Amino acid sequence: xxxxxxxxxxxxxxxxxxxxxxxxxxxxxxxxxxxxxxxxxxxxxxxxxxxxxxxxxxxxxxxxxxxxxxxxxxxxxxxxxxxxxxxxxxxxxxxxxxxxxxxxxxxxxxxxxxxxxxxxxxxxxxxxxxxxxxxxxxxxxxxxxxxxxxxxxxxxxxxxxxxxxxxxxxxxxxxxxxxxxxxxxxxxxxxxxxxxxxxxxxxxxxxxxxxxxxxxxxxxxxxxxxxxxxxxxxxxxxxxxxxxxxxxxxxxxxxxxxxxxxxxxxxxxxxxxxxxxxxxxxxxxxxxxxxxxxxxxxxxxxxxxxxxxxxxxxxxxxxxxxxxxxxxxxxxxxxxxxxxxxxxxxxxxxxxxxxxxxxxxxxxxxxxxxxxxxxxxxxxxxxxxxxxxxxxxxxxxxxxxxxxxxxxxxxxxxxxxxxxxxxxxxxxxxxxxxxxxxxxxxxxxxxxxxxxxxxxxxxxxxxxxxxxxxxxxxxxxxxxxxxxxxxxx
Length: 489
Prior knowledge:
alpha/beta, 5-stranded parallel sheet
């Protein structure tokens, strides 16, 4: 992944002046030692903060050290004003944690009361409208605090990534595809920059790359990646030309941003003018951490990037597409896996999932589009069943009235042959039927969902919380009714 940030966390201890400063400092050093054992990228700030002047010194110190994330550590009760001002002035994600007491025989002279101080810290953070990450149980021994910081790294990586992200689009969205449209105001609220372009701009820039001397090498690389799945070798030079077009545009247009993702129109005029479909190229860029969301799905691209930052792995974007036929469920799932038929569905897209996440793959044409277009202009999809394993299905979305909402659900891809086309798999998520009705439908989510390969629900949920998302849907277990769920059903 070369399109996501590296995180360096500052560990800064704070101390209330009526408590021994040595208590907070020594506890911080023990946390730093535990972080070193875990191999965490942590800078142990030598300045323990008692007052606002200390806060300014510590802030400069961690900035000079190149830190882009911060752990404020209450080694004792902590000074409410300096510790919250540090969070306010630091330009990056912040976590607050507190020290647990050391031992029974130290509860007189060396009692820190950080358990109490965390309450006042959270109150003061709210007064100042400062958003920070506080773990589910934020009080711990040095080894436990180090583990909290380990959990914080992927969360911080996603937040820092968004603060330095530009989403580049080529549109407009296809006709009769309102589902992929959402107000962009929340992008700015998140710190994300956006550059919107016409597909005519893309076409003109693509034509400028005709005869590019790099095309031959990229096409050769594609052929090697596809191996025996290279069923349409004649299309590879055009796909290579398109890949170079997007990469050059990203480099020339990212401006002061560090990271770029795309949300591009891919049908119907694309095929007739470019002469291919872009799916395979989209998959290759996703493998580099540069998501290319289909159908100008801006919030789909945003969601993919978040998952890439958290997992440090490839993410894909799929349609929540079709039900699993009853005969397939009865013969290949029932009795073998602990899922009802309503827990299953098929996730699909034309061919945008990276080669490394497919059980097998072949370069083919886009079957749906070939029904209405000449087949020769629909070449370029990457067909294959997605490899089985754990997944997290999730999405961050703006509503029509520009409110941020999100959902996250963990499940798995089953080792069941799909017998279908595109990049596709049989998904199973516990209580998916209820989740489908009372979250996806009830809350008006579009049909695109991001898929991270592994169980990352905890981290994704915390990122959504950090971003200020107040309504986060999830697949609620039996006995836990949704607000709209009929209790008599």
